[in-house]
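Hi! If you just cloned this repository, the fastest way to understand the data is to look at a raw example. We've pasted two of them here, unedited. The first protein comes first, obviously.
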Amino acid sequence: MSSKIKVDNIADQGNNNMLVKCGTTLTIGACGNTVALAAGASQSGFGRSGSVDWQTTPKTTTFTAASGEGYFINQGSAITANLPAGTAGAIVAFSDYARNFATYNLTISPNGSEKIGGFAADVKLAVNGQAATFIYVDSTKGWVNVQNAEDTETGNPFIQASGGTETECGDFKIHTFTGPGTFCVSNAGQPGGSTTVEYLVVAGGGSGSAKGPGDGGGGGGAGGFRFASPTLAPLTFPAKPLNGPAALPVSVQGYPITVGGGGSGASSPGGPCAPAGNGANGADSIFSTITSTGGGKGGYNPSRASGTGSPGGSGGGGNAGSPNPVAGGSGNTPPVSPSQGNNGGASIFPSNPNSQGGAGGGATAVGANGSPGVAAGGAGAGLPTGFGANGESCGSFRHYAGGGAGGRKEPANGAGGVGGGGDTNSNATANTGGGGGAGGSNGSSSAGNNGGSGIVVIRYKFQ
C-alpha cells in the first residue's frame, strides 16, 4: 500500500533542514550538505554553470558532439566534430589528446547554416596541444569561443571561394578560368588567415596580318599581361619584374570573369589591293579592378602601302610594304604600371624587294624588326608552376603573352615568342594570350593567323 504526503506550504524551519523556503527563494539542502539525484532521475531548469563533463574515452573518428560535453581527440587522420543544434547556453569543448592537431587537423562544423564566431563556416584546430570551448550565444554570432589555449577561433580565417577549374598547391588554392565565369567568394577571410587574392590576367592576342603578293605583313601583338603575387617563390623568375604592387582584397560576392578571345586572322587577300588583311585586335580580359588590354593586330601590306601595327597590350608588328620604315604598334596601351606589354617591331625596307614584316611585341620584350631576316616575336613572361601548372611539369615555368612572328617573302619562317606566340603562318596557342603569326608564302598571298585567347588565374591561401 503506497502513501502520499501533500503540503500546501513549506515554512521556514531554520538552516539545518534539507528543504527551506527563505522569502521567495527555495533552498534545497543545508549549508555543507550534498544533494544527489536518485539513479535514473534527471534535473531540469537549473541551467549550466559554464563547465563541461569531459568524456575520457578519446574520439578517433568523425562524431557529433552533445551539449555539456568535452572531448579528447586522438585521431590518426583529419576528422570532423559536428556541433549539435545551437540553443542559448549550449556548451561543447575539444582538446588535443595526442598533441598532433598540426598534422591531423580537427574540423569543427556547425549545424546546418548556423555560425561559428559570426561565420557560417567550419573551424579548424591546427595547433599541437590546442583546446577550445564554444558556447552558443545567439543567431548573430552562433557558437563563440570563450577559451582557447592558442588563438581565439572566430570562424574560418581564410578566404573560401569557388569558380573555374580549382586546384591546390601547398596551402594555396588556385582557380583557373579559360573562358567566362564567376569567381564566387563565400568567406572574405580574416587578417590572421587571408584577406587578399593574387591574380594573373592575360588578354587575347592580336592576329598576324595576311600576306599579299608582295612583301610580308606584321605579327600580332600579345595580349596584355598583368599579375600580382607577393608570396610566389622563387625570388627570381621571368615575369618577376612585372609583379604588381599588391594583391587584391575581396568581399563576399560574385566577381564576373572576362577572358578575352584572340583576334581572328584575315583570309588570303588573293590580290594586291585587298582591304582589311590585318585581321583583328585581341579582346580584353577582366577580373575585379584589373583589365588587361587585347594585343594589337599586325600591319597589313596592301600593294606596298604603309600600314603600321596596331597598339594594344603589346603592339602588332609593322608591315613591309613601303620603301620607308614602317613602325610597329605601341605596347602598354593604355599605360599601366608595371607595364602590360611592349611595342611591335618595325619593318625596314632593304635594297632588295624581299622585305620582311615586323614581329609582335611580347610581355617582356619588343618584337624584332623585320629586315634583313624574318622577325621573331617578343618573348612572353614565365611564372612558376606554383601559380597554376596548366599542364607544365612541376618545377618548370609556364609562359604567357608571346608575340607573333613577322611575315616574309623568303622561304624561311620566323619564330613566335615564348609564351604561345605563333610562328610565321601559324596560329597562337589558346589560353596564352600569344599573338598570331603573320602570313608568309614565297611570291604569293597567304592568310593571316589567329591570336591566342587569354586566361585568368586567381590564387590565395586557404589553410
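Ok, and the second one:
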Amino acid sequence: MLHETDLSRADLNLLVLFETVMEQRHVGRSASRLSLSPSAVSHGLGRLRGLLGDPLFLRTPRGVVPTDRALELAAPIADILARVRGVMASVEPFDPARSRRRFVIGAPDGASSVFLPPLLEALRRRAPGIDISMRQLLPRQGEPSPALAWNDVIAELEARAMHVAVLPVGEMPERFLRRTLYEEDFVIAVRAGHPFADNSGIEAYCAMRHLVVSQAGDTAGFVDTALAGHGLSRRIALTVPNFMFALAVLSETDLVAALPRRFVAMHAHRFGVIAVEAPVELPRFLISAVVPKVAMMDAGIAWLVGQLEQVGQAA
C-alpha cells in the first residue's frame, strides 16, 4: 500500500482515521468519534492523501463519499488494524468480567429477537460491563439469489461497520468464519381464534389475505415459490417492515403470515398470536454468526462469537 520509502512518514493513527471516516462518511462525526477537532481530521486526511496519492474522500453537502481507491483500500486497512488490535489485545488478555467494551452486532430482526434476550442475560451474569449495539440488517432489494442477497452486508462487515453479523446463510467465502447458531423454519402465524386454525389446508391458506415482512415492500418470496410449485398463488394484502410489527397487526386482523418458528414461539403469546403448521413445505435456514477470520485475532470478538454460539444452541 505504501512505498517502502514512505513508511518513515506513516502513522498508524492515520489508518484509524481512514477507518473512522470510511464508517461515518462525515468529518464532524469522525472528529467526535476520535475525540479530535474537525480541523485535525481534515489535516490527517490531507496527510493520507499525500501518502496514498488519491483524494480518498470527496466532500458533498451531506458529508464525504469515498473514491474508488478508498473503497479498494478499505478491506486491506481493516485487516491491518485488526491484526494490530489483536496484538494489542494479547498484551492485556481479554477479561469479559472486567471489560468495558461495546460490540456491534448486525442481524435481521427475526433473528436478533431470538438470540438477543438470552445473550443479554448471559452478559449480565458473565460480563456486566460489556454493552451491545444492534444494527438491523436487510437483504439486497430485489435480489432473488440467497447467495447474493447479503453481499452489501458482507462488504460492511469487512469495512468493520460491525463486529459480527448474524445471517440466514449456510456458506460464506473462505476469508470468513461462519458458526451455526440454530436452524430455523417457518410457521403460519394467526391471531387466536382465527378460522385458519381449524381449516389449515393449502386451499384455505391461499384464500386468506396475507401479510409479508419486507422493508422495501417486495411481495414475492420463498412462500410464493413453494406455492407456485403446486400451481397456486396468494394475495399479499399488506407488507410491514419488521417481524414485531407483523405480530401487532396479526393480533388485530384476519391476516396470516409465514414467520420464523423460534421468533413466534418466543414472542407471539404477548400479542395473542398462535402458530399453525404450514400447509406447504417451506425451506429451512441456518442462522449463522459471520465474522472475518482476521477479526478472530481479537480475543473479545472471539469470545462474543462463542457466546452467540452458546445462546443459539440453547434457544
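That's it. A detail worth noticing about the second one: The chain has three domains: 4-91, 102-178+289-314, 186-276.
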